[in-house]
TrEMBL record:
GO terms for molecular function: nuclear import signal receptor activity. This is Hikeshi-like domain-containing protein. Pfam families: Hikeshi-like_C, Hikeshi-like_N. Residues 136-187 form the Hikeshi-like C-terminal domain. One of its GO terms (biological process) is protein import into nucleus. InterPro entries: Hikeshi-like_C, Hikeshi-like_N, OPI10. One of its GO terms (cellular component) is cytosol. It comes from Dendrobium nobile (Orchid). It comes from the Eukaryota. Residues 18-122 form the Hikeshi-like N-terminal domain. Coiled coil: none annotated. Belongs to the OPI10 family.
């Protein structure tokens, strides 16, 4: 019915790599695939092998789950969208280690990827959580760059920092010049 590829990490895998829970649900135990480093697997390509196997009003929904946490929806494929590269929004392992779920994970429970046949109309809209986090990181890094630039020109007036009026213009000009000179400069902000 479907196949998956983990970009840069696997060859195409068919449904037999998953454990079938019932006729409409499959699970992939990430321990058998990558061990405890499940969070390093950031994307998954899922594709239908044959449109005739999935009714037109149905979809294959993809979810991820870490021990002690609920399943998180990643996206879906259906006859009108027979393949998709989905971001896998694994929670930050540091956050899990700090919670009670960390104790469960240490005990040997595995992260999982679930696939299920569901009504297409009932599925939530796909939000690319991975892209949102990358954008947030980029914005924070650019803001940090601006703050550091401003801090090098500021003075103190009592409990206030004082910066020149044209500081934003100067920073933006310098930022643009660096980006033009070094094409990899902006990529460093997106790490």
């Amino acid at each position: 019915m479907f196949g998956v590829v983990f970009p840069d990490r696997s060859f195409p895998m068919d449904i037999s790599a998953f454990s079938q829970i019932d006729p409409l649900h499959w699970l992939l135990d990430m321990n058998t695939f990558v061990g405890a480093a499940y969070y390093e697997v950031r994307e998954m390509c899922i594709f239908l092998l044959n449109a005739a196997l999935l009714p037109p009003e149905k979809a294959l929904a993809v979810y991820v789950q870490v021990p002690g946490q609920p399943f998180l929806f990643c996206g879906a494929v259906h006859n009108a969208r027979p393949s998709a590269v989905l971001s896998l929004p694994w929670p930050d392992p540091a956050d899990i280690a700090d919670s009670a779920a960390g104790a469960i994970q240490v005990a040997g429970a595995a992260a999982k990827i679930g696939v299920s046949v569901e009504d297409l109309a009932a599925l939530p809209p796909v939000v690319d959580a991975g892209a949102e986090k990358r954008i947030e990181r980029l914005a924070l890094r650019v803001g940090e760059n601006l703050f550091n630039f401003m801090q090098s020109f500021c003075g103190v007036d009592g409990s206030r920092l004082v910066v020149p009026m044209d500081i934003l213009d100067r920073w933006f000009k310098k930022f643009q010049e660096k980006a033009k000179r070094d094409p990899t400069y902006l990529k460093g902000f997106a790490l």
